[in-house]
Design goal:
105 residues; mainly alpha; Arc Repressor Mutant, subunit A; 2 domains; 7 helices; elongated; Homeodomain-like_sf; DNA-binding; Tscrpt_reg_AraC-type_HTH; transcription regulation
């Protein structure tokens, strides 16, 4: 069972995924060393911290793309990416479709 501080950090991540919160900050929130936090994070979630943040953001982006007509650049900003081209590249790698194709399909 993960420590309570880790659960709070996960809640913080899901509530603030739009903002840049790096691994060092999350380790401090948990009162853990960065290396121990990284190890525990991977063990609990199955993802590295960075990959998990991208996954959370992509899951939110999928919802936004399917539920609205907002431009893709706006979706990118809404889920925490300042560069829509970078967002599109990550989205395509994660989902296998471009954001535009995902919205249509």
């Amino acid at each position: 069972m993960p420590p309570l501080s880790f659960k709070k950090a996960m809640e913080h991540l899901h509530d603030h995924y739009k903002q840049p919160v790096n691994r060092d900050q999350m380790a401090r929130i948990c009162s853990m060393s960065v290396s121990y936090f990284s190890l525990l994070f991977k063990k609990i979630t199955g993802y590295s911290y960075v990959n998990y943040v991208h996954k959370v953001r992509m899951d939110k982006a999928k919802i936004l793309l399917r539920s609205g007509l907002a431009p893709i650049s706006e979706v990118a900003f809404e889920v925490g990416y300042q560069d829509p081209l970078y967002f599109s590249k990550l989205f395509s790698r994660e989902v296998g479709l471009s954001p535009r194709e995902y919205r249509k399909g």
